[in-house]
Amino acid sequence: MRRKITVIGAGNVGATAAQRLVEKELGDVVLIDVLEGVPQGKALDMYQSGPVEGFDVTVVGANNYEATANSDMVVMTAGLARKPGMSRDDLLKKNEEIVASCIGSVMKHSKDPYIIVVTNPLDAMCEVARRVSKLPKNKVVGMAGILDTARMRAFISMETGYAMSNIHATVLGGHGDTMVPLPRYSTIAGVPITEMLPPEKLAAIVKRTAGGGGEIVGLLKTGSAYYAPSAGAVEMVDAILNDKKKILPCAAYLQGEYGINNLYVGVPVVLGHGGVEKIIELKLTAEEAAALKKSSDSVAELFGILTC
To answer: Which of 91, 179, 198, 276 is the most exposed place for a label (fewest CB within 10 A)?
Structure first.
């Protein structure tokens, strides 16, 4: 029996994620949205690309959650998009309502799915999904670090000219302006970038990574990033459903790791059939640990505002 993946939200992130999922044949996809005709039309268009792209899974659109019954995986992308000048924190209250409603609806028809959250503010929305779904912490995880590290890797490649496939980066902390890029744990073909780039260049890359989402919002004017976020979410789906045991930076629920309790914070994790199977604790300098605490304190403030 083929796996079933529900993507909630047929906007740019959700639709692009659905397209990547079917092209990789990770499972049959249901695209859900409140706008009548939009998920149906986009899904039909995607499905008609199958003969050209060569995939044989199905993709359907729907406005009701009955269509999502018995989903193995849920990718939560629906929410208010960030606008120029708007911080991720500004999105909190509106998107809390949206995430709580959507997750509550999908859980009425699926018993034990994995949930990957993409909606911002990411760390707080993961907690909303965990509370509403009542799933164990290992089955609710957020797509943040993959996006942040992808941006950092891209910026390192832009600066050095080296292949992005040779570049690995590490980013910890909340998904937002307080994220903690770690140049010390970032490499080019195994060589730390601290040995390949001068401090001022590294500082500029770290700063641009932290503001990566805002940079795109400022350029688009009427939207936010979706190619890279959807790619990050699909990599997580692949790692979990295909039990790849990949070490990826994700927003995971911490209970003592890194000295952080009962918060979703971006850290390296092992993703496999058990969801978040292991949290990897890196040895941090005093400065890095302080930056991570500052980031987690920011996440804690958002958690304190949640009402669900």
So the answer is: 198
State the pTM of this model.
0.95
Q: What amino acid is encoded at 303 in this protein?
A: F
Give the residues across from 173 on adjacent strands. 266
273 is a catalytic site residue: no
Tell me the pLDDT of the chain (308 aa) as tens digits: 899 999 999 999 999 999 999 999 999 999 999 999 999 999 999 999 999 999 999 999 999 999 999 999 999 999 987 666 766 667 798 999 999 999 999 999 999 999 999 998 999 999 999 999 999 999 999 998 999 999 999 999 999 999 999 999 999 998 777 889 999 999 999 999 999 999 999 999 999 998 999 899 899 988 889 999 999 999 999 999 999 999 999 999 999 999 999 999 999 999 999 999 999 999 999 999 999 999 999 999 999 999 98
Cα–Cα distance, 63 to 300 (Å, whole number):
34
CATH of 145-305, one of 3.90.45.10, 1.50.10.10, 3.90.110.10, 3.30.1330.60: 3.90.110.10
Structure tokens at 135: 């799933």
58/146 Cα distance (integer angstroms): 27
- Domain boundaries of the chain, sorted by first residue: 4-142, 145-305
Tokens linked to 146:
């993959």
Q: For 4-142, which CATH superfamily applies?
A: NAD(P)-binding Rossmann-like Domain (3.40.50.720)
Residue pair 181/148 in contact by the 8 Å Cβ criterion: yes
